[in-house]
Amino acid sequence: MIPDSGLVVPFPDLEHAVGSHRHRHDPRAAIGVPAHVTIHFPWIPAASVDENALEKVRELAVSVEPFEVTFKELHWFGETVLYLAPEPEHQLRDLSDRSAALWPEAPRYDGAFDDVVPHLTVGQADKEVLRPVQAALARELPLKGKAEEVYWFALNRGGRWERRAAFPLGG
To answer: Which of 23, 68, 73, 146 has minimal Cβ neighbours within 10 Å of its Cβ?
Structure first.
């Protein structure tokens, strides 16, 4: 089954700095996914999302007050994924871990990683392709954003990701 649903914390205030890089180097940006830190992907299949699941996401979001995030450093996952590291990360990690506990049948990243590191992906390509992006973006650091909502994103019939619901942090 193709993963068709996920939970993210969007950072629209970072689009000015990362948007063009993401549209060139992150395939998800080109199909509708904004600058974000993933909370749970893949989440439960979109067809099975019901009012009970949405209420659990609402409760998860309400349990955390909005907070400021600073992105001071760029890091790599292996040789192909360039990302911004959020500080502090503990609220994002906590949201992700608690979501994973609520839906153990949907392991984050299909269980591929022992530790799910909060991050904002800038690009996915060969490291040599992304080095100029890294250099350009490093000159703009630190970037500041505010975590204010959790979005439920789902894949639509046209193959684009769309926001299906937004849950304000802190209620």
So the answer is: 68
Looking at the structure, give the CATH architecture of the domain made up of residues 5-69+90-118+147-168.
Alpha-Beta Complex (3.90)
Every domain of the chain and the residues it spans: 5-69+90-118+147-168
pLDDT in tens, 1-26: 577 999 999 999 999 999 999 999 99
* The model's pTM: 0.95
Q: Contact, 125 vs 54, CB < 8 A?
A: no
CB atoms within 10 A of CB 120: 25
Radius of gyration of the chain, Cα coordinates, nearest whole angstrom: 15
Secondary structure of residue 131 in the 3-state scheme: helix
Cβ partners under 8 Å of residue 124, min gap 6: 25, 26, 27, 80, 81, 82
